[in-house]
Structure formats: structure tokens, C-alpha cells
Amino acid sequence: xxxxxxxxxxxxxxxxxxxxxxxxxxxxxxxxxxxxxxxxxxxxxxxxxxxxxxxxxxxxxxxxxxxxxxxxxxxxxxxxxxxxxxxxxxxxxxxxxxxxxxxxxxxxxxxxxxxxxxxxxxxxxxxxxxxxxxxxxxxxxxxxxxxxxxxxxxxxxxxxxxxxxxxxxxxxxxxxxxxxx
Length: 181
Known about the structure:
Elements: E1 15-18, E2 27-30, E3 36-37, E4 42-51, E5 54-60, E6 69-70, E7 73-75, H1 82-94, E8 98-109, E9 114-123, E10 133-139, H2 152-164, E11 172-176
Parallel strand pairs: 4-9, 8-11
Antiparallel strand pairs: 1-2, 2-3, 4-5, 4-7, 5-6, 5-10, 8-9
């Protein structure tokens, strides 16, 4: 099922849902200039950052899930690597510089059209409240507010991080379909 689209971003004419030549699925195609508009998943990058055995979490100041806790994460930007995006998001949300470790979790959030990628990380210094957060704290494992976590992908990443605790056990892959937050 295609997300809605009415007009071509190239020439402004109306688009139609059809299977383009030499393709195998329905796409939005411009009726005037024949531009094919591919709609692909967005990439969300994040980092489970630790300092002195405690994990950094942010309380969201924005929707969706305003007021819930999350691992620092957000949409990747053009011109940056996965790791650079995870570091940038941590800086933006928690005013924290981190040393990126290894990639350890990949979650396909099929219904949202997203792929969430998480890295391990170590805080280089302090942290603070970024503009997308209302609170930022370090939590020991037994203090993590599991019932107040914003997203299933963040809960999955935290659980796998805790299971691994310092070991590089490869990438944990998970798929969420028809997921509730």
C-alpha cells in the first residue's frame, strides 16, 4: 500500500499509481513527465550510551510519545553515516558527546516504513537536556522505567544491550509488524 501522493515533485502534475516499465511493484508515476517516485523506508539511528555502568535516557519533549523515555535516536540525515547520525542525535537530545562503539541492533518497523539501527556508546563527559527532551538521566539497569519507554524498538535495543553487557555478540535483528507502542 502506497503512502498518499497527489503531485509530482519534479513538474507539479498529478501522479498515478501504476507499475512502471521494468519494475515489479506499484509506484507513484507522473502522468506528464513520467518520473517514478520511489518511497522507501526511513532510517532511524540511535545509541545506547553508558557511563559508570549507567545508561543514558531522554524524556521526549515532542510527539509522538511526548513525556515518555527513550534511547537518544532520530532520523538519519543526508551526508552522514549511520554512526555519525547516532552521535548527532545523542548530542541534540542529550547534549552529550559520545564515543561510538559497535552496531548491535536492527529493528524493521514495517508498518511505519522505518528501519531503526542502534549502536553502543560511551559518554565522553557530561550531558544535559536538549531541545527535544524535557529530562535526561543516567539509569542503572534496575532503575530503567520499562513501562514508561516510548517505543518497542528502544525497549528491544535496551534489553539486547543489557543481555550483551560489554560483549560484541553481533547484531540482534527484530521485526515489528502491527506494533503497538
